[in-house]
Specification:
The chain has one helix at about 1-15; strands at about 40-45, 50-55, 70-75, 80, 95-100, 105-110, 125-130, 135, 150-155, 160-165. It is mainly β and about 170 residues long. It starts with a helix and ends with a strand.
């Protein structure tokens, strides 16, 4: 009985691995992400949007120039854009991990700090509020994360709590 159950679980898992029929290129003609460096993390939300983040920076399209950003693939309109245009995340280094919650908010963590000078200040988790369209730091004052090194992984639970792991 145990062997049959194990075999059933194995073949069910194997079938799930092959359920994706083919890869889909996330670009609409000339509208590609065109990341100028490494993409470290991708995630999706319940509205079929895809988010990408990493070491890539904005060049001359939006202010502030040369900042690391989160890119959003709009699953309905089929195009890439900077998440929080006009209020980009103020990342002064790489974004290593991103995730979303069930409310449509996006969270980013990595090696960026809350200082205008690279390698000073503390690493933190940034939140993009889907309702307001604004980026902000998660937690302030005594509730701030104040990580002293990289944030490598982020995840949210069904209650909206954010969990961070890394070298801090």
């Amino acid at each position: 009985m145990r062997i049959m159950l194990l075999a059933l679980l194995f073949f069910t898992s194997l079938a799930n691995c092959f359920s994706q029929a083919s890869w889909f290129n996330l670009r609409n003609r000339g509208d590609a992400l065109n990341a100028n460096a490494t993409i470290f993390s991708i995630c999706s939300d319940d509205s079929n949007n895809i988010y990408a983040a990493g070491q890539f920076t904005d060049s001359t399209t939006h202010l502030p120039f040369g900042k690391t950003y989160v890119a959003k693939w709009n699953g309905t309109a089929h195009h890439w854009s900077v998440l929080g245009i006009g209020n980009m995340i103020n990342a002064n280094s790489e974004i290593i991990s991103i995730c979303t919650d069930k409310f449509g908010n996006v969270y980013a963590g990595g090696d960026f700090t809350d200082s205008s000078t690279w390698r000073t200040g503390n690493e933190y988790v940034a939140k993009y509020n889907a309702a307001t369209g604004l980026w902000s730091e998660v937690g302030t004052d005594s509730n701030a994360l104040n990580a002293n090194s990289k944030i490598n992984s982020l995840v949210t639970d069904d209650s909206g709590y954010v969990y961070a792991a890394g070298y801090f």
